[in-house]
Amino acid sequence: MKRLGTLTFVLLLLMAATVKAQDYAVPVGYKMVSQADFVSHEQDVIATFDWLQETPWTQDLPKRRAATDFLFKWIQDTPTITIELMPQLMSLTDANNKLLAIFIGAYAKYAIQHPVYNKDDANLVAVKALIVKYKAEPTHRKDSDIERLIKLDKTNELEDWVKNDYEKAAAL
Known about the structure:
- There is one protein chain.
- This protein has 10 helices and no strands.
- With 172 residues, the protein is mainly alpha-helical.
- 71% of the residues lie in helices and 0% in strands.
- The protein has one domain (2-171).
- Helix 3 packs across helix 4 and helix 4 (61-77) packs across helix 6 (99-113).
- It is globular, with a radius of gyration of 17 Å.
- The termini are far apart.
């Protein structure tokens, strides 16, 4: 009986995530010039990231492209958040380029939700989101760099890697 209750709970969670993903609408006709424009779209950025994270790569490709375009436009021009795209990040996303939007979206979401944030904490959240999406996508290309991060995460060494090695790789 307990197993049936657990199964029912899991199914309800999956259905709720599906409904949430279906409710997402890509922002259209957005104008982002002033800081107030960017602030007014912060919840759209969070919803966009959540949708990209929850939706399989092979589902709704035109919507995925529009959502990614919106996210990149917002992060590129926002005056309040700066993401440093380190060479290490490029090597983590070279085999699966859709992971770049996941990293950027997770970083932006963290920064929006934590206005006074530490860059290392935002990078850690973004790397963990990248790992979650990589593992969730059956169509991903195997990537030894990400596989190494998965192992570091399992041994609780990922935070140290982000703080000590993520940016150091850029200095080489």
